[in-house]
Amino acid sequence: MRNILTELVFAFAIVLTLTGTIIADCRAIQYRDGNVLADSKTEAVIQISISQSDLEPQKLRCLANQLKERFSGAEKILAVIFTSHDAALHWHVGSVEADPANWIRQSYLHAVYTYDPTEGKDYVELFPIYDMSEIETKIDRRSTGPISCRAQVAQRCLVSLQRLDYPVDAFRRGESGEVTLTAKIMKNGEIKSVVGSEGANKSGTFSQSALKNLKTWKFEQAPTIDNIRIRYSYVFDNLEKQNRATRVHFTLPDGVTITASPMH
Asked: Same structural domain for residues 127 and 97?
């Protein structure tokens, strides 16, 4: 019996040590309050801004812990997280078509923390591009394990990028094309040294579009510089009837397809 108790105490000490290490790794994340929609004893709804360098999975989990502690008495918490303070102040739910400035602000919306125990919700959703679920990563606030992102390149989490559009001139001409780019992910997560060659399209339209977009990709920080190769496939589909003119599908770690269809 004594040996069993000794082993249990030892195991408990290990758990405490590991938990303490994880908590110690959670340094305070600096954030600024933007638009506060609700702050009562039962509910908190707030828009906040953080720096781009803090837009990383582990740091977002730490931020969720801070918000949970700040609103410890709230039964529900909803925190919308931007990388622009102006966006955190002025973004609002509604049609972006009716307010072009709101469309720009929405491009800085990259995470949402939701706490609602009645529905089993206590997690952060990371959006490299808002409202694109196929590359969204859900981060459990209570988990202490490693976080695996749905959008990864060179085993590094893709945390943000600008929306991908079909080049207007190519769309008007009904052209398709493919561009392959090589680049380096720097230690700070930025993209540098982007070079590439045009595929089927000789006008350079697709190259310009792909180059401009890849330069906006941001990754989590790492101690290494990583070489990457991304293929942009632009497909003009005149046969498929869609409600949206442009659709994007990621095939990471090495590809993305942008499909354009005339509106029917």
From this structure: yes
Report which of 163, 162, 166, 189 is spatially closest to residue 179, judged by C-alpha positions: 166
DSSP strands (E only) in the chain: 32-39, 43-49, 76-82, 109-116, 121-126, 137-140, 152-153, 156-160, 177-185, 191-198, 218-219, 226-236, 246-250, 255-260
| 3-class state of residue 113 by DSSP | strand
- How many of the other CB atoms lie within 10 Å of CB of 236? 17
Which domain CATH number covers 220?
3.30.2420.10
61-120: pLDDT as tens digits: 999 999 999 999 999 999 999 999 999 999 998 766 678 899 999 999 999 999 999 999
Question: Which token pair is 175?
Answer: 């052209």
The structure tokens listed for 255 are 């590809």
58 and 177 assigned to the same domain: no
Rounded CA gap, 51 and 68, in Å? 20
Final residue of a domain: which of 150, 175, 203? 150
| pLDDT computed for residue 262 by the predictor | 81
- The range of the structural domain enclosing residue 10 comes to 2-150
What pTM, to 2 d.p., does this model score?
A: 0.86
Pairing relationship of beta strands 109-116 and 76-82 according to DSSP bridges: antiparallel
My answer on whether 135 and 168 are in the same domain is no
Hey, what are 18's tokens? 């590991």
